[in-house]
Amino acid sequence: MNLGTRKILDRSFTAVGFGSIAVMGIALLIVLVPIITNGVGSVFFTGTLEHRKMLFNEFGRGNTEELAKENASSEVYRKQIYGMLSAFEAELETMESEKKQDYLSKYGPVKTALQTLIGPLPGEPEAILTRYKYGQTRWGKAEEKLHEFLYETKWDFSNPDAMSKEYFVSRATEFEGTSLVKLFPFVEEHLEDVLRPEFTVYWGFLTDSSVDSHIFGGIWPEIQGTFFLAVGAMLFAFPLGVIAAVYFTEYAREGFFNSILRSANSTLAGVPSIVFGLFGLAFFINTLKVSESKSVLAGSLTLAIMILPTIIRAAEEAILSVPKTYKEASLSLGSTKWNTIMTVILPAALPGIITGGVISLGRAAGETAPIIFTAAVSVGSAIGLADVFSSPTPALSWNIYNLASEHEAAAEIRHVQYGMVLSLVSIVLLLNLSAILLRARISKKLKG
Amino acid sequence: MHMTADAREVSKTASGATATRDIYLPSERKIISGGGTPHVVAKDFSIYYGEFEAVKKVNADILSKYVTAIIGPSGCGKSTYLRAINRMNDLIPSCHTTGALLFDGEDIYGKFTDEVLLRKKIGMVFQKPNPFPKSIFDNIAYGPRLHGINDRKQLSEIVERSLRKAALWDEVSDRLDKNALGLSGGQQQRLCVARTLAVEPEILLLDEPTSALDPKATAKIEDLIQELRGSYTIMIVTHNMQQASRVSDYTMFFYEGVLVEYAPTAQLFTNPKDRMTEDYITGRFS
After folding, report:
1. Which of A199, A277, A227, A228 is nearest to A423 (CA)?
2. Ranges for the ABC transporter domain (chain B) (predicted)?
3. Beta bridge partner(s), residue A252
4. Torsion-angle region of A286 (φ positive above 0: left; ψ -120 to 50: alpha; else: beta)
């Protein structure tokens, strides 16, 4: 090959390498930017008076006096709104029945939309679900709801060949000639006075339990559940994995049995995680009956089985990378094999073993499939440490899926979904970061 | 009694061997027998890697408290022979032996021999300095701790004594708690010697201890061997014939697994009995 071709080949190789890394970076950016911006919004946002009322009533947090003052100032405008409503209701009574029916059918949705916006109206029966006890707690959401209040959404089906088109009709025009027509510009103008938006930092999102299945409140039960499951899995898998790795590297003799064991380990690493989930259900819950039904214990055991091959592999690599000379030195000083492993080989292999362990911990924290059947519930409160043997727990990975696809009000709680995703990503990132730091520290200590 | 039986047997081999090359005993054997005793005795001792016979029927006495050098071209089995003495070859699964190798009259490869105890008595220093990634103190104290000494004061004494013996004390006494991997190559190697001395072995096996060191560090190790001569039985494998002639009392020459010649160093280098030895030490092959 001549020099020119060689250079071109080298350059194109570099270019392809750079290209693939760039593509990866862009993909990461596209995924991470919305996660971070929206996720941060679950803690930092413009909250309304309804949010502060909710915090006070559900969590007992907030200043009573200040809240009363704010309520009073909001009440001034509310009174006017309520007044307009009752004036219109009185006007309805005077109408002839056909016209009244017509207006009543239009008035119902207006009331519902208003109720969603600013909270329960006087005279209505008290709501059973917490979500109906408050208006919009987030200003961004309130603005959306204001639009829904002002305009009715309609669909244009006139052209059968095209997709139907969405268009908006002002509700005010529908009440032309009645007293209600004043309500719409009034609400539009004074919504800020009613809801009193204010910049809010809600750390409780990370430390509170959820209220009414994540409509309000935080995600602490999920964070705690994820922590329990991942740490539990580690408690089982780490010691077992390291012992197995020591066996493979130091004690096992090359042979048929050993090679079967090794390939079994490799195969196990490639099994889809949903299979582990089913296995966990069939083996730990149905056969061994470690718990009555789903439990943190069963989930941890299932996750442990799933990450075991990775831990074994990482520990094996780490042990094999310890210079053989250490072992020779130790043995030549009259050390037993056991002593050599414990005092020389394992300490020297520790950085690699720990790295493998923490990466597996991150994987255990993020896996969904293995815990669907064995540990996860979609809604629940935080469980105590003593309950891990019998109680299931909510967990971030499963609830991200659940809230995004199966929640009855999925579109209302996007901020919670993003918040959960950001929390999970941060937890895994922190774990990996701590692994890197720990590894660097131990390596530095070993190198002197 | 033991001595004479031994001598007869070896000399028998020396005169009658046809399968292997002639084996020569140190000529001053009789004179030595007054002060020196055989410490390690090989009788028809062979070492195999699987089918391959790496060391072939060696018969030789290593004399107590003398320095014996082992020379020979690469792959001649000299390291294999050395490592057989403290059973480091056990680490290679395919390795096995025939014949007998006796240490103080006891079979090193005997059924009931405890190789851990054996290695405590027969220390080894390796080609590349291999201190543990621990502090200097912990490196030296590693052996004594293994054998049950945990008293800090006692350990300190051992560490100081060992480092002094290895002529390293003055250089490291103020940084015993520093990582041993921070030392220079020559210092590391002397540390390894000190670490071996700390468990009070009877025999010191040196497997090309200076091949990874610069000339200055090499000179220090050689000085150290001179210091230790007379206190320990020392065996040193080396590629460097000048080194062998400088430090050793006796020299063994191996070629293709056979112990070709074994004689007092001065005699082997000035008046070799075997053509092969002569060719090797004059540099006709290597």
Report:
1. A227
2. 40-281
3. none
4. alpha
User: Is A334 near chain B, with CB under 8 Å?
Assistant: yes
State ipTM. Answer: 0.82
Residue A323 touches chain B, beta carbons under 8 Å: yes
For residues B150 and B146, give the distance between their C-alpha atoms in angstroms, rounded to a whole number: 9
Q: Who contacts B251 (Cβ-Cβ below 8 Å, separation ≥6)?
A: B68, B69, B70, B71, B244, B245, B262, B263, B264, B265, B268, B269
Residue type, B206: L
pLDDT-derived band at B13 (thresholds 50, 70, 90) equals very low
Cβ–Cβ pairs < 8 A, chains A and B: 78
Query: CATH classification of A220-447, choosing from 1.10.230.10, 1.10.1760.20, 3.40.1350.10, 1.10.3720.10?
Result: 1.10.3720.10
Higher local confidence (pLDDT), A298 or A410: A298
Tokens at residue A424, please?
């999970």
Asked if A249 has any chain B CB less than 8 Å from its own CB, the reply is no
In chain B, what residues touch A331 (CB-CB under 8 Å)?
88, 91, 119
Given an 8 Å threshold on Cβ–Cβ distance, is A334 in contact with B116?
yes
Q: Residue ranges per domain, chain A?
A: 49-199, 220-447
Among A160-174, A321-335, B4-18, B86-100, the least confident range = B4-18
Separation in Å, CA of A230 to nearest CA in chain B: 32
Residues in chain A closer than 8 A to B143 (CB atoms):
333-335
Q: Is A289 on the interface with B (CB under 8 A)?
A: no
Q: Which CATH superfamily is domain B2-281 in?
A: P-loop containing nucleotide triphosphate hydrolases (3.40.50.300)
Tell me what the mean pLDDT of segment A398-427 comes to: 91
Section A59-79 average pLDDT? 92
Q: Cβ B199–A334 below 8 Å, yes or no? A: yes
Answer whether B36 touches A (CB < 8 Å): no
Least reliable range by pLDDT among A287-301, B5-19, B126-140, B225-239: B5-19
CB atoms within 10 A of CB B164: 14
Mutate to test the interface with B, among A333, A338, A339 (most CBs of B within 10 A): A333
Query: For residue A232, what pLDDT is reported?
Result: 94
> Which of helix, strand or coil describes residue A186?
helix
Which chain A positions have a beta carbon within 8 Å of B133's beta carbon?
Answer: 326, 347-348, 445-448
Q: What is the mean pLDDT of residues B202-229?
A: 89
Question: How close B130 comes to chain A (CA, Å)?
Answer: 6
pLDDT at B36: 62
Instruction: Please tell me the predicted confidence (pLDDT) of residue B286.
Output: 65
- How far is Cα B121 from Cα A447, in angstroms, rounded to an integer? 30
Collect all residues of chain A within an 8 Å Cβ-Cβ radius of residue B142. 330, 333, 335, 343
pLDDT at A10 over 60: yes
The tens digit of pLDDT for each residue in A343-364 reads 999 999 998 999 899 989 999 9
CA distances from A365 to A220, A434, A437, B80 (A): 15, 15, 20, 51
Assess whether pLDDT exceeds 90 at residue A179.
Answer: no
Residue A30 exposed, middle or buried by CB count within 10 Å (0-12, 13-18, 19+): exposed
| A332/B196 CB distance under 8 A | yes
A321/B contact by beta carbon, under 8 A: no
